[in-house]
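FW: tagging you since you asked about this chain on Friday. Here's the raw sequence from the shared folder, copied in full. Didn't touch anything.
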Amino acid sequence: MKKKSERLKIVLDVAKRNEQKALDALTGKRRYLDQQQEQLDGLKSYQVQYMTEMKTNMTGGSLSVQNLQTYQSFMSQIDQAIQQQKNTLQIAQQEYNLALENWTAYHQKRKGMSDLIDRYKGEEEVVRDKKEQKQLEDDLTARRYQN
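HL: got it, structure written out here
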């Protein structure tokens, strides 16, 4: 019959695979979150650049009403794009947080299983040492009676 520690290695292997899958998912969610943040930063940077250009054109005094309306309309579109990107970023953050919780749970399960196996190995070693000690004592006693 196999020892408990050996039988539990199968469960540990499953826990390790689950933890790795969760880690892979977490890594993917982190990458996506970073991409969404970069996209938001890019939109904000573009907005600042566009506003600076608009102010420069306005100071010259040669800006027509139609051009001003076009600038304002475009600024409104940029604002909408930024708001949509913020919403996307918020969803990406929530997904990342869920993936982190999932990985944490699998990590704790794997760690707990590993600790349990280590404890069982320690107990098995104590039992084995006691058996060896008893066997040595029995052998010594048998030799005494033979002589």
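FW: The radius of gyration is 34 Å.
HL: agreed, and The mean pLDDT is 91.
FW: great, closing this out.
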